[in-house]
Amino acid sequence: MMMTLAPLAALGVFGVAAPVSAQPIANPVATFAGLDKITGRITRFDVYIDETVLFGALEITPRACYNRAATETQRTSAFLEVDQRSLTGTSKRIFTGWMFADSPALNAVDHAVYDVWLIECRTSTDVPPPDARD
Which residues form the signal peptide (predicted)? Predict the structure, then answer.
């Protein structure tokens, strides 16, 4: 029995459409949710990229926030730094890395009192930008 490779060769001639990876879209605002485990209160808050906000004893600074076009599979991710502020005012880095909205437990902030997770990336917010608050 002889096998023919003609159909496979035809694929090489005509080319196979490979999936095109969508370029991530950079956004100026990251939306997070934070849980205070003592009170059980969940707070949702927007943070501008490179701005530091205080959530409880945590200083949260997003460095990038990306999502994909609405026509693509949504992959929302943010790169952030989280420091813990002590009662003396000093800070210690407890997290640096990527956080993913569709997998909040994948890279979570490990803290005894607070949980923080990414909700979405946004192009705008009602919160005034840091330079407009002075």
Answer: 1-22
* Tokens, residue 89: 């005012």
Average pLDDT of the residues of the chain = 84
β-bridge mates for residue 29, sequence order: 48, 122
- Tell me, yes or no, whether 2 lies in a domain: no
What does DSSP say about strands 91-100 and 25-26: parallel, antiparallel, or unpaired? unpaired
Q: What is the pLDDT of residues 76-98, one digit of tens each?
A: 999 999 999 999 989 999 999 99
DSSP 8-state assignment for residue 123:
S
Residues 106 and 77: their CA atoms lie apart, in Å, by 11
- Structural domain that includes position 53: 23-126
**Number of independent structural domains in the chain:** 1
pTM of the shown model: 0.77
Q: Report yes or no on 105 lying in a domain.
A: yes
Whether residue 78 contacts residue 39, with contact meaning beta carbons closer than 8 Å, is answered with no
The β-bridge partners of 33 are 44, 117
Query: The tokens 């997770």 sit on which residue?
Result: 117
Number of C-beta neighbours around residue 51 at 10 A: 17
Q: Is residue 109 part of a domain?
A: yes
d(CA 10, CA 115): 54
